[in-house]
Amino acid sequence: MIRPILIHPDPRLKKVAAPVADLSDELRALAKDMLSTMYDAPGIGLAAPQIGVNTRLIVLDCVKEEGAAPRPLAMFNPEVVASSDEQNTYEEGCLSIPEIYADVTRPEAVTVRWIDTDGNEQQEDFDGLWATCVQHEIDHLEGKLFIDYLSGLKRQLITRKMVKLKRDRAREGV
């Protein structure tokens, strides 16, 4: 099921998400819905708070090569357990801040630990776009948006654009 994505500014996007204590069929279904929503958007990552669910769950799939098999990941309680000293700058965007992009500098590589949909603990090293994406999505679980890395003035301008976008969408009944 495709779920509506919250648009900034929405107070639910600024809350710290609650840890998943017990994996349930309901949470597995939520992960499937989130993947469907992410692919439909289209995007490469989505965090539960972006669809109004205050749970530590993210989904991502950064495979972009034409004809390559998708690699959907659902991560419950993801955490960065190690990060490289080397930094990387990517132009980031966000499904909750549509059509806005900005350069954000983050660690180039990270090691992430999480619980998979079968309840097993996983740990994997990510680099490049995957590292940027997983860090971006984990930030959402902490109530942090990519625009929080920008100057106050840029953040204000973007927030005003989003308020106008939400107002326009409400008028159009979208």
What does this entry look like structurally?
- The chain has a single domain (11-172), classed as Peptide Deformylase (Alpha-Beta Complex).
- It contains 3 helices and 7 strands.
- The protein has helices spanning 25-40, 128-141, 152-172; strands spanning 45-47, 57-60, 73-83, 87-94, 97-107, 109-115, 121-127.
- The chain has a 5-stranded antiparallel beta sheet. A two-stranded antiparallel sheet has the order 4-5.
- A hairpin with a 5-residue loop joins strand 6 and strand 7 (121-127).
- The mean pLDDT is 96.
Structural class by secondary-structure content: alpha+beta
Helix content: 25-40%
Number of domains: 1
| Mean pLDDT over the residues | 96
The rounded Rg comes to 16 Å
Order of helices and strands: HEEEEEEEHH
Shape summary? globular
Task: Please give the oligomerization state of what you see.
Answer: single chain
CATH architecture: Alpha-Beta Complex
Beta-strand percent range: 25-35%
Number of strands: 7
The main sheet comes to:
5 strands, antiparallel
Could you list the spans in which at least 5 consecutive residues all have pLDDT below 50?
none
Strands of the widest sheet, in order across it, are 1-2-3-6-7
CATH homologous superfamily identity: Peptide deformylase
Give the CA-CA distance, first to last residue: 18 Å
Keywords:
174 residues, alpha+beta, Peptide Deformylase, 29% helix, globular
Quick rundown:
This protein is of the alpha+beta class and 174 residues long. The chain has helices at residues 25-40, 128-141, 152-172; strands spanning 45-47, 57-60, 73-83, 87-94, 97-107, 109-115, 121-127. The protein has one domain (11-172): Peptide Deformylase.
